[in-house]
Amino acid sequence: MTRFIASREPRRRRPNDRTSPPARHARPRGSGAGRTWAAVAVALAAWSGGTPDAAHAQDAPLTLVGAVEAALGADPGLAAGRARLDGAEADVARARAGRLPSLQVEGTLTRFQEPMVVRPLHSFDPSRPPAFDETLVQGAARLRYTVFDGGATGSRIRAAASGTTAADAGVEARLMETMERATEAYLAILSARAQEDAAIRRLQALQAEGDRARRRVDTGSAAEVEALRASAALEEARADAASARTRTELAERSLAREMGVEPADVVGRPLADPELAPGPEAPAAGVPAVEARHPALVRAAEAQRAAEARLGEQRAGRLPRLELMAGLLDYGAAGGGHVAEWQAGIAVSWPLFTGGARSAAIRRAEADVSAAREERAVADRAVDAAVDAARAAVQEADARAQALGASVAQWEEVARIEALALDTGAGVQSDLLAAEASLFRARAGLARARYDRVLARVRLARARGLLDRGWLDRALEVDG
């Protein structure tokens, strides 16, 4: 089921509720109270943003999923994370290239002050003296292949692969963060609009009470203080309505910023009201509370693996390095006479003494492994704490919504009874004003609690590592 809430939707269902008080308090045309109500109506029309409402009257309601998808497409942090993932994949390709032979081509043109031998002397033949020239041209194509490096190349590949997995987990973490922020901004609009409606309804009730009090004062059946008390409460309600309107505008601008659109595309636009889908929220028996692919856990695990791979790379420095080499060299002078020859060989290098640098590098790598291992434990605890906090928030939001729902119903009845009592002369004005204030607080609290129930479950899904578009489709009854 999907419900739609337009900007200040309850007042759309009652198009005259801002411009006329309830019928039982109607005043003759031209009365002072009537002029006061007209001024209030003008002020409320200014607060309500009537122009954006009219502009968006025919717009299709914006759904939560639609807002989330727009935010994902506009988030620069997500684009940055994907760029880092591309860089990490390039690091893997570069590390794997170490297992392939390398081919290098080079050439030189050298001018000497005195004639220089053009090509190497492999033997001396007096009957054929070597050629000399001031300008020498040399070219070479050299092929090198590492046969053994103690596992350093494999370690670099493993470290780079861990970096890629960690970068991918970072993208997933940013996805969840963006989805949560967009959801929070979306629900903040619905909550702010509901609170604004509660403020307007209170303002109407107090305007009606002000009219009643003024009539009693005019007929001499009540003291002036009764009208002053109603007027003071009305001014307080006006301030609350102004604050509610400001919060609504701020929430709308916040969602527009998350979606990467102009504020005019969101201000006053109807929103689909998400409902929680029925179904169990706690994991079934035998199912872990936290997804194994939780981004925070994946990044911590891959950081440890990368540190271990770098330790292996440093330890490989204690072993000899074996390379095969081959080359094709060309010697000649500027005027010609080029001769080509090939070379082939084996190179072995084994650093026997480095002044302690190699041992220090190994100790540093071992320290990095220990730190990564402990940071992984920290991540495990942080995720568990986040899940516990999110579950507590779900329980609190459910309890608050249930309690405030009952409170609203009871305060509505109390306000109705107090209004009837005043009409019959058996009530006390201060009791009605107190009931209206309490009803406003209960309605505003219920608006927050109702949408906090949805947001709390979104945050629980993120804490468990489950938040994605599929989860939104399953957990919320919204149109995609």
Task: Report on this structure.
- The two termini are 12 Å apart.
- The protein is an alpha+beta fold and 480 residues long.
- The relative contact order is 0.15.
- The longest helix has 68 residues.
- Helices cover 61% and strands 15% of the residues.
- The chain is built from eleven helices and eight strands.
- It folds into two domains: 347 residues, Outer membrane efflux proteins (OEP), CATH 1.20.1600.10; 113 residues, no CATH class.
- Strand 6 and strand 7 form a beta hairpin.
- The N terminus is likely disordered.
- The strands form three sheets. Strands 2-3-6-7 form a four-stranded antiparallel beta sheet, with no helix packed on it.
Question: What's a concise summary of this model?
Answer:
This protein is α+β, with helices and mostly antiparallel strands and 480 residues long. Helices cover 61% and strands 15% of the residues.
Q: Which tags fit this structure?
A:
disordered N terminus; alpha+beta; 480 residues; 11 helices; Outer membrane efflux proteins (OEP); 2 domains; four-stranded antiparallel β-sheet
Shape type:
elongated
Major sheet characteristics = 4 strands, antiparallel
CATH arch. level architecture of the largest domain: Up-down Bundle
SSE pattern: EHHHHHEEHHEEHEEHHHE
Helix content: 55-70%
What is the CA-CA span between the terminal residues? 12 Å
Radius of gyration: 39 Å
User: Can you tell me the CATH topology of the largest domain?
Assistant: Outer membrane efflux proteins (OEP)
Low-confidence stretches: 1-52
Query: What would you give as the CATH superfamily of the largest domain?
Result: Outer membrane efflux proteins (OEP)
Kindly name the structural category: alpha+beta
The neighbouring-strand order within the major sheet is: 2-3-6-7
Query: Helical region count?
Result: 11
The number of strands is 8
Strand content: 5-15%
CATH class of the largest domain: Mainly Alpha
Average pLDDT figure: 83
Number of domains: 2
Oligomer: single chain
